[in-house]
Each structure stands twice: as structure tokens, then as C-alpha cells.
Amino acid sequence: MSHDDIVAAAQDTVQFVKDQGRTCLFSAMDATRTSPQFLHRIFKAVEEVHCDIINIPDTVGVAVPSSFYRFVKDICDDVNMVVDVHCHNDFGLAVANSLAAVEAGAREVQVCVNGLGERAGNANLAETVMSLHSIFGAKTSIKTEYLVETARLVERLTDVKIPITAPIVGENAFSHESGIHSHGVIENSKTFEPGIMTPEMVGHKRRIVLGKHTGRHAVAKVLEEAGYQPSEEQLQEILERVKDLGDKGKQVANIDLQTIADVVIGEVAKGSQAVVLKEVSVMTGNIITPTATVRALVRGKERVLANTGVGPVDAAVNAVQGLLDGDTSIHLCDFRIEAISGGADALAQVVIGVEDDHGRRVAARSAREDIVMASVEALVSAINRMMLLNSERDEKKA
Question: Which residue, of 69, 106, 143, 197, has the fewest CB within 10 Å?
């Protein structure tokens, strides 16, 4: 079709829509790669037949905010219709271009929930709306407190996952892990958040995330909210265990932290420990006998022992018991393992109960992502409790 034919066809179509008593939006496909002279000509032509809204699409996402601003402003200055934009995200500029268009005079912006659309998608609903509300001070009729809920609904229905780092609706949008960030947010949320946009405004929640970058203040705050009051030494031990898990790529949930706190707070103080674990190594497989080697200080003297078992956990437990060498006679009376959180690398909690020859029983627990280590630590903790109990009994007799 010639330019004249296209203009005539556009006017005829708009006229037909208006004759039906309908609001008409005219969209110029691939506007940003169209000759500006022809684009202005066709927009003026549809205005003559009373078109209501004109749409400027950046169909293949090649506009940049600075040039798109001038592009849209020239059109806004030239027509008296409502100007609408439709931006694609091929270069990740859809939201920026949409906002530039609003600055230039556009009054409607086409968006998609979670930015879904052809190829790299379209301007993201949440990002565009919250930028307009919070940064530009503009108002829309969008109920922003449902943005997160809507995004997650669309995620479920489309099976297109929201990246955890997605602005506004992503899992990490209002999460803080870094020690200095967590400390600042605990004191004043505006320290490391925009301030002009809060999690409550979009239906999100602020979270202190525990991991390799976590600081003491964050751990102390989360524990305090859960009702824990660890000593400074215990807090340091809890922090070290959290960082150890974080170094292995695991994010520590609140339930994980509480389990770690239960273990650490319940341990015998380091100065009173008769058995101090130094090293555990395990060898297992389908054609070899599971064997464990344990090295520890027992009442200040280093001992090393290897033992076998029906599995790696059994071998490790047998090796630890063998280290006592008659120092304290105990046997297991309880052994339980459970996963605290989901996944193959879930934190495992092991509870071990031991009994001595006099019928006294004590129990201890440990929590690690390695079941063998958790079992050994729980057993060592139970042994320390039993030996401390025996020492206190001997002192009373004396």
C-alpha cells in the first residue's frame, strides 16, 4: 500500500468505529522505526475523524528514554488526542521508556503483569505503577497493595517464575542480608530502602535474611523476636554456624535459626566440656564397610579412634563412644533425625539420649545440613552433659 492508501484506510477504519458509538484507539505499529513525518501525518489524519486515543508502540524495543521522550513530546505537541504508549523490553528499557513518555505528556501506558509479553516482554505493571506513584507523584487507579498477590497469581497460572531479585514483587525485594544493611534497616527502614515505597504499599513483607553476609545485629534481632536471649558467647557461636551454612549457599530460614539457637543455648559451656570434637571423617559406599575416624580431646588428652558400623552415622557414633575408653560408661537410649526445612540440603536435627550405668539419662541435640556431623555433635554434647552430671555428683560426695 502507498502512504496515501494507508492514510485513507486508517481514516475509514476509525470512522467505522466511531459510527458504532465506540471509543477508538489507533495504534501505529512499529512507530519508533517509522518516518516521523509519515507518523505525524497519519496521526493528524485519524484525529480529523475524531479518533480518541493514539498509541505509540516501540514494537521491537529499540527506543532509549532520552530519544523516546523527544519522540513522544513532538507528537503530544502536535495532536489534541490522548497519547498512549506500548513499550517492549528487548533491551530492558520498557519501563524507563514508558516513564519518559509520561514525562513527555503521554497519559496512558500499556503494561503487563510480571512484564510478560512477546520475546523479552512488555513494561512491567508493578515497576511502572510504583515508579509513577512513588517517584513521579502521579496517581493511577491501581490498588497497589495487591501488586504482589497479583504477580504471584499470574506466576502460578502461567508457570513463569518471578526472579527472586525482581523489583517490587520479587522474594528479595524487601529482604536484607548484609550485616550493615540489616543493622541499618532494623534501626530505620529508610536507611536501605527507598522510603517512598514500603513493602506494605505493595502487599509485600520486610524480611531479615540470614546467610553468609549476616551480622550480629540481624541474628540478635530475629532471635529476640522469637523469644531467645543468648549470651554474647552463644550469639557468636550461632552467628558462626549461620555464616557456615551461608558459605555453602544455603539461606537460613527462621526455623533453621531457632533450631541452631536451641542447640547452642543447650550445649555445655566450652570451659566445662570434657570432650572437645576436633575432626570427623567417614568413608562409606556400596562395596565397602562404612568406617568413621574421630579425633577429639578427652579431658585435655587427644585421642583418635576408627570404628565401623552398618552405615556412616552408626560408624561415627561407635567411634565417638570408643573414644571414652572406659572414662564414662554410656549407651544410647534415644536417637531421632528429622529435616527442619525442605530440600536435599535441608538442615537436619538430631536428638540423642544417653544413659549411664546408674540409670541417669540426658539428651542433647544438634542441627547441621550433614546428618553424620549432626549425629556426632549431638552425641558429644550428650556425653559432655553426662560427664558434667557425674562431676557434680562426685563433688557433692566429697
Answer: 143
Predicted TM-score of the model (pTM): 0.62
The grid coordinates listed for 395 are 563433688
Q: Using CA of residue 9, residue 15, residue 17, residue 22, what is the dihedral sign?
A: positive
Backbone angles phi, psi at 83, to 5 degrees: -100, 130
Distance of CA 38 to the CA centre of its chain: 49
Between helices 36-48 and 65-78, what is the axis angle to 10°?
A: 40
The fold of 3-158 is TIM Barrel (3.20.20)
Q: Which amino acid is at 105?
A: G
Query: Per the CATH hierarchy, to which homologous superfamily does domain 271-397 belong?
Result: Alpha-isopropylmalate synthase LeuA, regulatory domain (3.30.160.270)
CA distance 120 to 123: 10
pLDDT of residue 343: 63
SS3 percent helix, strand, coil of the chain, rounded to 5, is 45, 20, 35
When computed from its CA atoms, the radius of gyration of the chain, rounded to whole angstroms, is 33
In sequence order, the β-bridge partners of residue 87 are: 58
Element (H, E) at 25: strand 25-27
Gap between the Cα atoms of 347 and 339, Å rounded: 6
Q: Which residues are CB-contacts of 297 (< 8 A; sequence separation ≥ 6)?
A: 275, 276, 278, 303
Please provide the average confidence, as pLDDT, over all residues in the chain: 85
Total residue count of the chain as it appears in this document:
398
Buried b / exposed e across 135-174, counting CB within 10 Å, b at 16+? eeeeeeebebeebbebbeebbeeeeeebeeebebbbeebb
Q: Where in the chain is the domain with CATH 3.20.20.70?
A: 3-158
Rounded distance, CA 191 to CA 184, Å? 6
Q: In this predicted structure, what is the pLDDT of residue 243?
A: 77
User: Strand 108-110 to strand 330-339: parallel, antiparallel, or no bridges (unpaired)?
Assistant: unpaired
User: What's the CA gap between 161 and 25, in Å, rounded?
Assistant: 32
3-state SS class at 291: strand
State phi, psi for 336 to the nearest 5 degrees.
-135, 140
Q: What is the pLDDT of residues 10-57, one digit of tens each?
A: 999 999 999 999 999 999 999 999 999 999 999 999 999 999 999 999
- The DSSP bridge partners found for residue 85 are 56, 109
C-alpha torsion sign, points 272, 275, 278, 282: negative
Query: Residue 4: pLDDT above 60?
Result: yes
